[in-house]
Write a structure and sequence with these properties.
mainly beta
């Protein structure tokens, strides 16, 4: 049975909020993780959907890099905006605290990620593999700490 058919879906609203990367416990396989990384995730889980907005302001001399999407949690493709590297996303809920997120350019998976929230919904671990614009892949491990439960960014 898929999650979209399951009437007993977990209440994902506890994961709503602003999440900030914890640099000291995050890493990239190539050893080039910036010690000054500034990455915030804004998440909202209405029903069987995920709304996602990220802001990467690590490079202070560049505009803030963003990625936005809203998609069903059953693996159906949704559209992304804000980042030319991706135009689609697929998201699946694997358990009450685990998710698979595939960021894609057409049908090519650019980033494959496994997310796991803590039971108390205060931390989020993301593990995955991403392909750079040059076609080189690296794995990553990122820890995010919940900063607030605000979701006003998604108000329509």
């Amino acid at each position: 049975m898929t999650h979209s058919q399951d009437q007993s879906l977990p209440d994902n609203t506890r994961f709503n909020g602003v999440w900030r990367i914890e640099n000291t416990r995050s890493s990239w396989s190539d050893g080039k993780f910036p010690d000054h990384m500034k990455l915030d995730l804004f998440l909202k889980f209405p029903g069987n959907f995920i709304w996602y907005h990220s802001e990467n302001s690590t490079l202070s001399t560049q505009p803030v890099m963003t990625l936005d999407f809203k998609t069903d949690l059953n693996g159906t493709p949704g559209l992304t905006s804000g980042n030319a590297r991706f135009n689609k996303v697929r998201a699946r809920q694997l358990s009450a605290t685990e998710f698979e997120i595939l960021e894609m350019l057409d049908e090519d998976v650019i980033v494959a990620a496994y997310w796991r929230f803590s039971e108390d919904a205060q931390t989020l671990w993301r593990w995955g593999v991403g392909k750079s614009p040059a076609g080189l892949s690296r794995s990553y491990e990122e820890l995010f700490i919940k900063e607030s439960t605000a979701t006003h960014i998604f108000d329509e």
